[in-house]
UniProtKB/TrEMBL annotation:
Its EC number is 2.7.1.-. Transmembrane segments: none annotated. It comes from Kineococcus gynurae. This is Aminoglycoside phosphotransferase family protein. Keywords: Transferase. It is an enzyme of class 2 (transferase).
Length: 253
């Protein structure tokens, strides 16, 4: 994260930036710049349909979306212990249940065959480039395959990392970054929210108020790690940082 300050000028903060997207914060406004206008269109449509708090859209054009800042702070961040209370995690689980119970968005989600193919391709890349030990990849590939089964589609966020959920005390004030929203597996969202924060899975499930298959949750944890490492490496992020993707793979049994 970087920031620039000039005398008499509001701070401009680079929240995240890579070849595909960039997000800037200017005072109480977030500017999201996306090379693919289709993602911006999905984000706006999903926020309009979602039955949970979302940022207020200030304006947009083909490639830039301006959003009002949400009150509170992120529920958690990968690689860091969350300072949010267990009740805040439970509230996030309840908000997720509300989303999954909503009518499906009218655009298609990813097909299971596509997801399976992507997992196999990513595992081959990890092996071919000697990124991780063979046994670690093989074990997590098998764990991930448990999640790749038929499911009843739900309205999912699609990238519900803990830093995409904002809370103020024990109240969810908003959910951001909806460009991956689509019909999909509800447990993928549950797994993504608790990814790297296994200690809060019980809190989330208390609010989610529905029995889940924990083997599927763990499967999506392995899937998310295996399928993300190449992209992270190629875009200047470190999946080997403490508590991040590689550590999640090592913790899987």
């Amino acid at each position: 994260m970087a920031a620039v300050m000039m005398m008499g000028v509001t701070e401009v903060e680079i929240v995240v930036a890579h070849q595909e997207r960039a997000t800037l914060r200017v005072g109480e406004v977030f500017l999201k710049v996306d090379a693919d206008p289709a993602r911006t269109n999905v984000e706006m449509a999903a926020m309009a349909l979602a039955p949970v708090p979302t940022p207020r859209v200030l304006w947009h054009n083909r490639l830039v979306l301006a959003l009002a800042a949400l009150p509170g702070s992120a529920l958690g961040r990968l690689g860091q212990l969350s300072t949010a209370s267990p009740r805040a995690w439970t509230a996030a689980g309840a908000a997720l249940r509300q989303l999954h119970d909503a009518p499906l968005p009218p655009w298609p989600g990813r097909e299971l065959e596509e997801i399976e193919t992507n997992l196999d391709r990513q595992c081959h890349w990890l092996l071919d480039n000697d990124v991780l030990p063979v046994d670690l990849i093989s074990r997590n590939h098998e764990i991930a395959r448990v999640a790749l089964r038929e499911w009843t589609p739900a309205f999912i966020h699609g990238d519900l990392q803990s830093n995409h959920v904002f809370v103020d005390g024990d109240v969810v004030t908003g959910v951001i970054d909806w460009s991956e929203a689509a019909p999909g597996d509800a447990l993928f969202d549950v797994a993504t929210l608790t990814f790297g924060h296994e200690e809060h899975l019980t809190d989330v499930l208390t609010g989610y108020d529905s029995s889940v298959d924990l083997a599927v949750i763990r499967g999506w944890w392995s899937f998310r790690s295996l399928s993300a490492i190449q992209w992270l490496v190629e875009h200047g992020f470190d999946p080997f940082a403490p508590g991040c993707e590689v550590d999640v793979l090592k913790a899987q049994k």
